[in-house]
Amino acid sequence: MDKLEQKSIDLATQEVLKKAQDENIKTAWDRLELQEPQCGFGQLGLCCTVCDMGPCRIDPFGEGAQVGVCGANADTIAARNLARKIAVGASAHSDHGRDVAYTLQLLSEGHAHDYEILDMEKLKTLAQEFGIDANKTKEQFVKELSKKLLDEFGKQEGELVFCKRAPKERQAIWKKLGVTPRGIDREVVELLHTTTMGVDNDYKNIITTGMRCALSDGWGGSMIATDVQDIILGGPVPIRGKVNLGVLKENYVNIVVHGHEPILSEMAVKASQDLELVKLAKKVGAEGINLAGICCTANEVLMRHGIAVAGNFLQQELAIITGSVEVMMVDVQCIMPALQEVASCFHTKLITTNPKARFPGVTHIEFEPKKAYEVAKQIIKLGIENFSNRNKERVNIPKQEMDLVAGFTKEIVFQILGGRYRSTYKPLNEAIISGRLRGLAGVVGCNNPKQRHDYFHTMLVKELIKNDILVLQTGCSAIACAKQGLLIPEAAKIYAGKGLQEICEAVGIPPVLHLGSCVDNSRILTAASHIIEEGGLGEDLSDIPAAGCAPEWMSEKAITIGFYFVASGVYTIFGASPFATLGSKNLTDYLTKDLADIVGGRFEFCDDPLKMAQLMIEHIDKKRKALNLKPRMYD
Ligand code: BF8
Question: What pTM was computed for the model?
Fold first, then answer.
């Protein structure tokens, strides 16, 4: 295997990395090399920077210091480091949810004219959940609902409304443990407070507070983001699209949207089809405007409009290095600071749009929901004007592009499997009970240059579907598997086991279902709750023959997602890179063993995709046995 193949299994990525190498443009892989060897104390979670008596570090070999200046030991330090990451991840997803809820409020006040209520059904469901009088007018509904949603962030007591979506048994476990989230902001603040110097020194208690914070993301901030986006941007339905760098077009003005919040990129979709702007693009010599996405903003516009996905996290720099991107418009999260440097090697204009995420010296065009479409048009226009600055000789767009089907939601699973007029989870439950489906797996998360790009995701998912496990995906993991052709119905015949194949063929779905962006992991939680509600698969989420995995994770947000899955009863595996806990054996044991008896879910750390699959299958089989279900139908 040559060096490029070691970096990524994706041919398009290899091709552009070669170009970067030839032109001496540095990418994340080069910068990782410069960092090596990375700090061992940091990797083990044993470096403490909580106060200025430090930084302190614990000697993992037991010879040097075993406590920091304040007396904190490895357990406290590792748990605090981890918990602070949970708080940061929860704050990112939840602040996203807040912005979407705020847009709904502006809409209700008549200040966000570019948006409208597109999913009345969901609006009504939420209104009911929040106890809003059904006799009110739509306008009153929206006003009251947006206020109640925003109140979820600042609530001081009680519990988040969406916690009621969880099965009763699960709610009881949370109550008993005291981890039912009260208010989203409160849980983040409290976790930061308890992990500052001289507050909580009990690693188990720190993790308990961490779980409550993570739950406020999964069953709070992220769920609000998902549901309100569906209300104002439309609930996704299965849709075909294309993926990989080959979606960039040589003769078109290429605009790439990147980040996470779809409120603006949704307007970019509309603006890219604006006849006046298309005419303008033709006037400058292009054939039209081509919009594509990176990361989760890409997943959002893919789910609702079938907009092409240029790539996942590690491909953001590569999109620019193709030399074909006129504008990369970014909002928040997962945007590498290095983009500015890479863009400066080409004609690409990097444009920031969110006051929370700016780059020094980079054009900033601030997004406001009140003038959303106007801002989107302004940005696309800049792209068109920039087309003439493209150096055609430096354009190398790889040919690789792959078809995919996305747009699956908890509502769509109902409809597809149960029929539009008989919406029910019964067929899904029956498929699991009969053994035609062995179980379910959520495979999610990022890329990390420390691991071979896309390799872990695709190897793992192929092995799972081969074993009749229906895979639900979000984020960069979904993009990775889509590039390898796993997200088309035809993939079932090639890769799936006989039972899964029969289901995919009967209803025309791929063996791997794309549920959206990372906040849409909340769709997995609600779908799992519906499975329990339907009956026959136990009383609690931890009873379902299911498992989760983030094989190439890198973000703090992934840690938060892991914790809300585990705290919801799910067995969850994290990939190769250390979890920043391994310096404390007590903490590692607590996360990977003891938690199972406390919350029904636990963590596992593993660095081999086939081993991950094996562990997930073993867990699923164990759950089948506990439910008195036969092993899978076909062996
Ligand atoms: O929120 S999977 S690299 S893009 S953090 Fe980021 Fe990870 Fe991708 Fe989406 Ni999620």
Answer: 0.98
How much is the mean pLDDT over the chain? 96
Query: How many A from CA of 294 to the centre of ligand 1?
Result: 10
Q: Which residue lies with its CA nearest to atom 9 of ligand 1?
A: 296
Distance in Å, CA 446 to ligand 1 centroid: 5
**How much distance in Å is there from the Cα of 90 to the middle of ligand 1?**
13
Q: How far apart are CA 317 and CA 25, in angstroms?
A: 10
Whether 551 shows a pLDDT value over 80: the answer reads yes
Please, are residues 289 and 389 in contact by the beta-carbon 8 Å criterion? no
Pair (205, 260) in one structural domain: no
The tokens describing 529, both together, are 């709750």
Residue 481 forms part of a structural domain? yes
In a domain, 59, yes or no: no
**What pLDDT digit, counting tens, does each position of 267-277 carry?**
999 999 999 99
16 domain residue, yes or no: no
Pairwise pLDDT comparison (479 vs 134), residue with the higher score: 479
Number of domains in the chain: 3
The minimum-distance atom of ligand 1 relative to the CA of 260 is 9
Closest ligand 1 atom to 519 CA? 1
Indicate which CATH number applies to the domain containing 564. Answer: 3.40.50.2030
Residues 215 and 270 in one domain: no
Q: Which of 229, 313, 565 to mutate to test the pocket of ligand 1 (most atoms within 8 A of CB)?
A: 313
Sequence-distant (≥ 6) Cβ neighbours of residue 517 within 8 angstroms: 260, 262, 296, 297, 299, 300, 303, 474, 475
